[in-house]
Amino acid sequence: MRVAITGATGFLGLHLLRELLDRHRTITVLSHAGSRGALDRIRAFLEVIAAPDELVRRLPERLRIVETDLTLPRLGLPRADFATLADSLDAIWHCAGDRRVDAGAAELRAVNVEGTRHLLELAEIGRRRPRVLHISTAYVAGARREGTVKEELRDDAGGFENDYERSRYEAEVLVRDWAARSGRAAMILRPTTLVSDRPGVPGNALRYLVERAEATGGCAALGWAARLPRRLRPVLRLTSAPEGRLNFVPVHEAARVMTRLADVAGSGGVDVYHVRHPQDVPIEVVREVLAEFLPVRLRFVAEPPTRPTGVERLAEAHAAFTPYLTHRRSYDDSGVRALLGEPRSAVGVDRDYLVDCVRPGHSGRRGGALPHPEQGRQDRVGSVELGCVLRFRGLAPTVEDLREAVAARLWRVPTLAYRTDGGYRRRGPLDPARHVHAQAAGPGRLDAAVDDALAARLPRDRPLWEARLVHGHARDEWAVIVKAHPALLDGASVVEVGRRLFGVEPIDAAPTHRPAVGDPGVRARVRPPVPPAGRPFATRGLTGTRRLAWLALDARRLRAAWADPDELFLTALAGALRDDAGVPWRRGPRPVWALVPTSCGDSHHPEPGAHARPARVRLPCDQADPARRLTLVTEAIRAARPAAGARWRLRAATSPWQVDLAAGPIHRWLRRPYAFRGSPLIGAVPFGGLPRGMPFGMFLATFEDSLYVSAVADTGLPSEFAESLCASWTTALDELTA
After folding, report:
1. Contact call for residues 421 and 451 (beta carbons, < 8 A)
2. Angle at the Cα of 22 (from 20 to 23), degrees rounded to 5?
3. Helices 205-215 and 283-291: crossing angle, nearest 10°?
4. Same structural domain, 324 and 458
5. Which of 512, 551, 205, 185 is nearest to 354 (CA)?
């Protein structure tokens, strides 16, 4: 089947195109004339959602880009080209449209109404009689605020909330009349409010709503109020229905439902379907989401204020969304359920998810461990920057080669262009020369280069990440140290960033290199012993600078036990802390608590970001029996709850009175060999963030058949401490797998 799509570079269109690429060998993209780079935008989006490399590579041969203008007759094409295009199509997905609820009637009609008219002309003259699939909106129901909206063609007797709804209704009328006149098939798909928590994807309706509120009306005039404590901010009263509810559907799920409907539905006439989420969102949850970002205290009231304040008058004049706060209606989707079964969603649309839809990575559930790198105690407690060491075999490239590769591949990782601004992430220009540097190391001194990287803080005048090219430490070997702040990336995401920037080319075979067990490559240092403290671990006399030690083991040692790898890791860590003479765990009556990030590498977050959440897990260091220790760790993990709230996460991550050490869970890294310009990737060593008030942390990762265990320790601890802890961990692991 030969398929065309309009709006393929828009919010819904990108997700819809991804689904269509799984169904059709080639697709014609009717892009807007003059908007160059449609193929690049589509490619960048596919990389963000971690589409298969083969799909991205073959994109130019699978997409046919035709520049058109929906507002012009014949789409702005010469008559012959217009006829040729029409004769080549079996189906047309009309996804383009102006979705601004606050735009003027003339602007909306030019795209939504006249654009639909011109596209129907294309379908009408096509010899193959193409089917039209028209993307409308559930809000063509207009000003009706109660009851159930049926899946049927409607009239305009009830009026509309705004010109946007009217323009979408008029477009539906055109489709209905065209199908009746020509005897052709058409499908009208009506999604509810489309949202997404993915960063870097344009057009999110909820994000647009908040940005408009921030830029216009009373909220723009109240920028000073954002600096006040919330209890002192001005009150904004908005009329809403106490039982009000709205429906938000994740855009990727909506696109999947639409394409499935197109596969199985078709009566020969006009079919209408509502695409919605199984659960509505109470209006009170919407209020909480808006209050998270606007510099006012929102208060929902049942009746309009009799004496509105100046702020309320401005808000009412500029906020086109306020009528929707009174909606109590629901949307019938019996037609969809009859074809596809009862609706199911893998995404819970709740407050945290909607907050992420406005500012990706900002909410308490999916945000980074720290809300802002310069906020609170962060500058006083030192850096919590994390990263990994990627080791390659072969001739080292120049730093210019590395910068050139990063510049060419930055579109694969749009997260790296975000900088923190007032606690929010904002995208800006990025210069690889400011982030990619070279560092020479003496023979056998890769560890020294890593320690130097740990000691240097990331500059705060640019996005918080860097990559260091290290060479000279070994013959026929070089390394890249990737480091980032946890407000930007979590541990698993740092690895994915390294893969996309420096190891994105798969190879058929690569030399296997396994460092000898017991050879962590850590330089010896002599430090005075740490003074005793009242906590289980000494926290006085710490310097805030770090050293890293690691061991490379056979990953089969971890798989030998019939237990969850995360549980084995923490159980062996408890055993190492019990047996290592350098860890005074017996001091003080309180238990040992580890700060463990959860949800790292979550499959729901294929794009890199700050998705991990810290949780406190109790380690049974006082338990001598390894089997009993494993049972206690399993129970502790199940009982652990991720810390809620940005302030608590900051306290938990930096206060020695809340946690004693950091512990990284298992990261399942690359499963097949990768190379950078012919140099195979032979190892990946993790290091987690360690605040100044925390003496050490331990982390584990797997790379192909190798297992890397690493310890990050404050330089105020004895020089051999990190290396000794790695060795003690392997001994404790052997007790569990014996």
Report:
1. no
2. 65
3. 50
4. no
5. 205
The per-residue pLDDT for 606 is 56
pLDDT at position 585, please? 54
Token code pair at residue 515: 């460092």
Tell me which residues of the chain have a pLDDT lower than 50. Answer: 217-218, 220, 361-382, 422-425, 506-534, 587-589, 600-604, 645-648
CA-CA distances (angstroms) from residue 60 to 35, 274, 388, 409, 711? 17, 33, 34, 17, 45
pLDDT of residue 268: 79
Instruction: List, for residues 516-527, the tens digit of each pLDDT value.
Output: 323 333 333 333
What pairing do the DSSP bridges indicate for beta strands 91-94 and 477-484? unpaired
Question: Under a CB-based contact definition with an 8 Å cutoff, are residues 687 and 387 in contact?
Answer: yes
Which has the closest alpha carbon to 513: 679, 682, 673? 682
Q: What is the pLDDT of residue 538?
A: 54
The DSSP code sequence of 16-73 is: HHHHHHTT-S-EEEEEETT---HHHHHHHHHHHTT--HHHHHTHHHHEEEEEE-TTSG
Q: How many domains does the chain have?
A: 2
Q: Which residue is it, tokens 């010469």?
A: 78
What is the length of the chain? Answer: 738
CA atoms within 13 A on the CB side of 430: 24
What confidence score (pLDDT) does residue 67 get?
A: 92
**Burial state string for 440-473 with b = 16 or more CB within 10 A and e = fewer than 16:** ebeeebbbbbbbbbbebebeeeebbbbbbbbbbb
pLDDT at 165: 93
Task: Give the count of beta carbons closer than 10 Å to the beta carbon of residue 23.
Answer: 13
Coil/strand/helix, residue 682: strand
- 532, 584 Cβ separation under 8 angstroms: yes
Write the pLDDT tens digit of every residue in 475-484: 889 999 998 8
Distance CA 449, CA 442 (A): 9
Same domain, 349 and 394: no
Q: How far apart are CA 288 and CA 294, in angstroms?
A: 10
Retrieve residue 503's tokens.
């190891």
Q: Mark whether 252 and 383 lie in a shared domain.
A: no
- Number of DSSP helices (H) and strands (E) in the chain, helices first: 24, 30
The helix-helix angle for 399-409 and 491-502 (nearest 10°) equals 110
Same domain, 156 and 298: yes
The answer to whether residue 373 sits within a structural domain is: no
E strand intervals along 222-349: 235-239, 245-246, 248-250, 270-275, 281-282, 297-301, 330-331
Distances (CA, A) of 331 to 141, 195, 563: 9, 17, 46
Run of H or E including 729: helix 721-737
Alpha helices in 277-433 (DSSP H): 283-291, 310-318, 334-340, 351-358, 378-381, 399-409
Share of the chain above pLDDT 70, in %: 75
Is there a domain that residue 372 lies in? Answer: no
Nearest to 724, CA basis, from 518, 542, 528: 518
CB 305 within 8 A of CB 312: yes
What range defines the domain where residue 523 resides?
378-737
Residue 437 lies in a domain: yes
Tell me if 477 is assigned to some domain: yes
Decide: pTM greater than 0.70. no
* Residue 404: Cβ within 10 Å count: 14
CB 394 within 8 A of CB 478: yes
In this structure, the answer to whether residues 165 and 233 fall within a common structural domain is yes
Neighbouring C-alpha atoms within 13 Å toward the C-beta of 350: 8
* Whether 154 and 247 share a structural domain: yes
Rounded alpha-carbon distances, angstroms, from residue 583 to 3, 623, 628, 714, 728? 66, 15, 21, 13, 11
